[in-house]
UniProtKB/TrEMBL annotation:
One of its GO terms (biological process) is transmembrane transport. Belongs to the phosphate/phosphite/phosphonate binding protein family. This is Phosphate-import protein PhnD. It holds the Pfam family Phosphonate-bd. The gene is phnD_2. Keywords: Signal. The keyword Signal applies. InterPro entries: PhnD. It comes from the Bacteria. One of its GO terms (cellular component) is ATP-binding cassette (ABC) transporter complex.
Length: 328
């Protein structure tokens, strides 16, 4: 319902201001993808959410007091969707973990003035679904470990794309100097870290752009490029190929494949607890027997479940992140 109202409002707003239908349609595609595929920050704050206090349709988010239950495992996450959609997606998933491990879980939404890295390190949450850069930061600062990574279309691997407008004179990375460039959020793996690797390997420094900036999401980067605000930008592979397939952007370059995001645990969680949770995650079958109990799990970064991982698999990304100052 919220998505329908938001899209309707956007249509009315831009048509009243004389925006062309082509730009309007591009905007509407990005609006829907922002809700359905990408991180949407700027939403209401929630504290801890009691799984038993939410109805099956999860329409109402129930705030819980800050007091902690020592018998409960608190689960956090890097935001990807509109916050209520994130909650609806993770609540059934935590019910699955409860049924498989015998432990009690509560969902925790990180306030805007804090980061999931800080909360995972401090033990505000004991386990979290995190992106690669968040994991690298948490591992470096707090000894956080990744126990599994998500299985996606490329079996736990993803790419970054650099895009431009179809009419642009940018055809390869060598054409980028002298143009403006939009990165994703500073902590974004596909929108910043991997894109920076691509540029560095091509011998391109940030100073060679006419200007550059860090935007809040992949959708914002795509919109900034399509509107002409920036000449080119870095974006995640799924959205980039979706837009390119509809003639809204052109792909300039694509990175090699890198390991995707996963589930991380606080350094102080007991080994036996980790073992039970890891076993449950590896047995998780979102395309099979668990499919009917889940909510929009295909929109997650682990649509096909989880696979084993190790700290060493992220050594190349860690080296680059350190070089770019992302681990400070």
């Amino acid at each position: 319902m919220a998505l329908k109202l938001f899209v309707a409002f956007q249509c009315h707003y831009f048509l009243m201001r004389g925006v062309s239908m082509k730009k309007l349609m591009a905007g509407m595609i990005l609006t829907m993808l922002t809700f359905l595929l990408i991180t949407g920050c700027g939403q209401e704050e929630v504290a801890r959410i009691n799984l038993t206090s939410i109805q099956a349709n999860t329409e109402k988010i129930v705030e819980q007091p800050v007091s902690r239950d020592p018998e409960t495992i608190y689960f956090g996450f890097d935001r990807r969707l509109e916050i209520k959609e994130d909650v609806k997606m993770y609540v059934p998933f935590l019910r699955y973990l409860e049924s498989q491990t015998g432990y009690k879980f509560k969902l925790h939404v990180t306030p805007k003035n804090r980061s999931i890295v800080e909360e995972l390190g401090a033990g505000v949450v004991q386990i979290a679904a995190v992106g690669t850069v968040s994991y690298l930061q948490a591992h470096e600062k707090y000894g956080v470990e990744l126990i599994v990574r998500g299985r996606c279309a490329n079996d736990g691997l993803y790419q970054s794309l650099i895009i431009t407008r179809p009419s642009s004179d940018i055809y390869n990375l060598a054409d980028l100097p002298g143009h403006s460039f939009a990165f994703g959020a500073r902590n974004s793996t596909q929108g910043n870290l991997i894109a920076r690797i691509m540029l560095a390997e091509a011998g391109i420094s940030l100073e060679q752009f006419s200007r550059y900036d860090y935007l809040t999401s992949h959708a914002e980067v795509a919109n900034a490029v399509m509107s002409g605000e920036f000449d080119a930008g870095a974006i995640q592979d799924t959205l980039g190929r979706f837009l390119a397939g509809r003639g809204l952007v052109r792909i300039v370059a694509q990175s090699k494949y890198y390991p995707s995001s996963g589930i991380a645990v606080n350094a102080n969680i007991q080994p036996e607890v980790i073992r039970k949770i890891r076993d449950a995650l590896l047995a998780f079958d979102p395309q099979g027997k668990e499919r009917d109990m889940l909510y929009n799990w295909d929109q997650s970064e682990m649509p096909n479940g989880f696979m084993p991982t190790s700290n060493e698999e992220y050594s190349e990304l860690r080296r680059w992140a350190e070089q770019f100052g992302l681990l400070k």
